[in-house]
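Sorry to interrupt, but I need a hand with the structure work. Could you write out one complete protein record for me, on any chain you like? Could you add the entry underneath, on a fresh line?
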Amino acid sequence: MSWWSSLRRRWRRPTPVPDALWAHTLQQLPFLQALSAPERNTLRGLCAHFLAEKEFTGANGLQITDAMALSIAAQACRPLLHMHGPDGRAVRQSADRLDWYGDFVGIVVQPGAVLARREVRDPVGVVHQYTEALAGEAMDGGPLMLSWEDVASAGERAAIGHNVVIHEFVHKMDMRELSPGEEPQGAPVLPDGFLGLNDRRAAAAHWQRVMGEAYAGFREAVAMAERFGGEPPWLDAYAASNAAEFFAVTCEAYFVNRERFAQDFAALMPLYDGFFNAAKAG
């Protein structure tokens, strides 16, 4: 934890989340209702700190209400509920888990998806330009953008394992410790003693092997569906884009529809339980 974030957290006492507003948030997000009472209390406290540290901006005339901000906070903080610190070590207090999101302050909320111009160079050097509709975007060291239309439908979209807030904030986790110009690879900093492996290199190798096999299997399933009319995978085919997107998309499903996720990605369950410390109290 940086000196500044520690000092800010010490002197900027968060305002408690009002009971009625918290009850409304839980009602809108059924996947949070499955948490135990102590877990919900921990999450509520994390949300209060999150709201004290982040700044929301509504774009294109969108007005950010308390309910909107809290909904985003609750979804963003869900992955942090039992986590270690971004250095891999245990945290001293619950709010220190927010250091995973310590490289930015601003959250820009758009009314709906944003059209962005993209440019890619293929293997033979030809540049291709296209337009992509973005429901969210996380920038390394910069602000985070979300589409409110997608955020507001989080409760409904849990059935298909979709959650744009968790997706973008998991990207932020994956971006920790990157070198300048380096791209995220779906390989975040693992906690000390990950899955009983005391050697960090061995733990990282295990993570990469299991993730790599799951990613390859998913890409094959997507290809079979697209080229040969096979049954499409449950999760969004966007997860086949690259390893970082596979990590973010599967994390969405892990948190909002754990039961179905376990059916399709049994090999990833121990991995994600170990990374997010799912078996530990917050």
User: Anything to note?
Assistant: The domain at 3-275 is CATH 1.10.472.150 (Cyclin A; domain 1). The mean pLDDT is 90. Strands lie at 55-58, 106-110, 114-121, 127-134, 136-138, 144-147.
